[in-house]
Structure formats: C-alpha cells, structure tokens
C-alpha cells in the first residue's frame, strides 16, 4: 500500500475475540419493537458479575489491538451521513424544563465511567481475557441505561456478547491493589441492545449499543484481621438516581460542537502511550463527515480532531454540554480512531451518525425494566 495515501483507523477497543457462550438472544419486544433491534440477556447475575471484578483485575484489564490490520485506504469525506427524518431529543435526567448557570470550567460528568468485561468462552481467570471500554448513563424510563459502542458489548468474530459486563460511573484508579474506585457503585448488565446490522453485518455505521443494568452495589475494601483485603458490599439502587443520565439526540446537524469523554489507555501506532486509563479525559471539537472505510463497512461516520486511543471507545459525544450541570445530549459514541495526517499517531475520532435507526434501538432499551 502506498503510505502517502494511507489513513490508519482502528476500533478504539480493538479487542482480541474468542469463542464463548451467551444468554438468550431475541428480537426485542416482538410485535412492537423494530425487527432490526437485537437484545440479549447477560450470562451472569448482578452479584456474579460484580464479585468478579476486584480492583486488581480492573487494573490489569487491557485493550488489545495487536491482532488487527490497522491500515485502510483513505479518501474524501463521505456525503452519506445525515438526517433520515425529523430531528429529535430527549432531555437529560433532571434537565426536564430546567435552566442552569454558565460555567467556565470543564467539569467532568458523573455519568461517564469505565466498562469492564471478559471475553466470552475464555478462562475468566486468565488476565488476557479482562478488557475495558468507556460508557455513560443516559436518560431512560427506569433510570437503568448505559450507552456505549456496540463493539464494547458484542464480539463480531464469534457472534457472542461479552461476559461479566459491568459499568462504573466516575471510575478512577488508585495506586494500591485495593484502590479501584467506584464512588457511585458498580452496575452489572442485564440486557444488551444493539442494531442487527452490527450484530449480523459487522457494520460500524451501527457501532452503538444500550445496556440495561441492574441496581448497583457499592463495594469498599477493608483489611481483615488476617491481613487480607475483603469487600464490603452495599446496595445503592438505580444508576440514574445516583448519577443522573445524559439526554439523547438524533438527526442533528452533521457539523456540531461536541465534547467527548472517555478513558483512553492504548498505544498510538508509533508505540507512544500518552494515557493511562486511570482517569477520565475529554476532547472538544466540531464534527464533520469522515471518509468511508470499507474495512469496517462504514460510510456514515462523523468525526473531529482528538488524539484519544484505545480504551476511550464507547465514551459519549455530548451536544450542548453544560459544565454547571454536567449534562448534555448524547449524539455519538467513540467508535474508531484515525491517523489522517499519516504520522502514526491518531488525530481524529469518529462515531456513527445518530439517526432514526439509532433512536429505535435507544427507544427499546429506554423502556426496558430491570430489577
């Protein structure tokens, strides 16, 4: 390949995927929901998934990308992204009809956190199967919904949903083995909701997913009389009651100013590793149409300048974000990283354009109840 014509892209998780077993997969709410919405029950109970993730395992979770061919041909911006109907929006939790003061600070949203999961069918005790992404709480009827990338819930190589899937809003990582922080609790998956075109066709124009989670557990680690660290668990209730939830917007303008949040930690193509994944990072920019990338079947991505690496995948793009309330409108998710200036460093991120198809998947998930 001519390196002068090259553009590098990679899904921001880029996980190595191997065979496994999943829970029941169904068309969501048959008879009422669109036939292209696929839902799957998580394989583990809330207690099982929560108990699996000790702070040490969280710290050792990685985002492998060395199994992927990173190079695809570049090209002009595609004109495919754009509205397929009327624009729409759902307000953030607590933002219904309210107004807030302005803030000059970029206050990080409490809704954003890290997603952890294990590769399906792999030995869960093998650190090589411990993986992570980013995500955010989003508005829903039962305040139980997390938005992320579809490739953060589904393995396209083995057609399996991931195991031991949890979400930790406002996650941060301390320096000790017991310091994995879950200030608002740990929320385990109950239902995965994705678009059929991603599940069946591996089409990254549909690289978004919405996960219904159980009520959460707050886990603290205390040193026992025998010198070992042991978990102390408390039920903390629903995700949206604890951290709120971002609004949701679809069929908006292709060019928009957005904030992106996530937990990047992976390498740039040149081997540089500027992020640790221990704390949340942000980018801000104006979105625009991206080139088509046949490698990922994508034609309708929008992107903007941002040097996020692997681990940020699934983090939200927030339109009209207000630092004073730490809320905005979910209008994209970190999906693919690009090296557009061919210097072996990622310089843009892209998301599927959120259109009516996205809204249909969101609508099914936003009305699904969990305990």
Report what the structure shows.
- This protein is mainly beta and 371 residues long.
- It has one domain.
- The chain has five helices and 26 strands.
- It has helices at residues 46-52, 55-60, 196-201, 239-243, 356-366, and strands at 6-11, 25-27, 37-41, 71-73, 88-90, 112-118, 130-138, 145-148, 154-155, 160-161, 163-169, 172-173, 180-181, 187-195, 209-213, 216-223, 229-237, 247-250, 257-262, 281-286, 288-289, 301-305, 316-322, 327-333, 336-339, 348-352.
- The chain has a six-stranded antiparallel sheet with strand order 4-1-25-26-22-21, with no helix packed on it. Strands 6-7-8-15-14-11 form a six-stranded antiparallel barrel.
- Strand 23 and strand 24 (327-333) form a beta hairpin.
- The protein is globular.
- It starts with 5 loop residues before the first strand and ends in a 5-residue tail after the last helix.
List the helices and strands and how they pair.
Elements: E1 6-11, E2 25-27, E3 37-41, H1 46-52, H2 55-60, E4 71-73, E5 88-90, E6 112-118, E7 130-138, E8 145-148, E9 154-155, E10 160-161, E11 163-169, E12 172-173, E13 180-181, E14 187-195, H3 196-201, E15 209-213, E16 216-223, E17 229-237, H4 239-243, E18 247-250, E19 257-262, E20 281-286, E21 288-289, E22 301-305, E23 316-322, E24 327-333, E25 336-339, E26 348-352, H5 356-366
Parallel strand pairs: 18-24
Antiparallel strand pairs: 1-4, 1-25, 2-3, 3-14, 5-18, 6-7, 6-11, 7-8, 8-15, 9-10, 11-14, 12-13, 14-15, 16-17, 19-20, 19-23, 21-22, 22-26, 23-24, 25-26
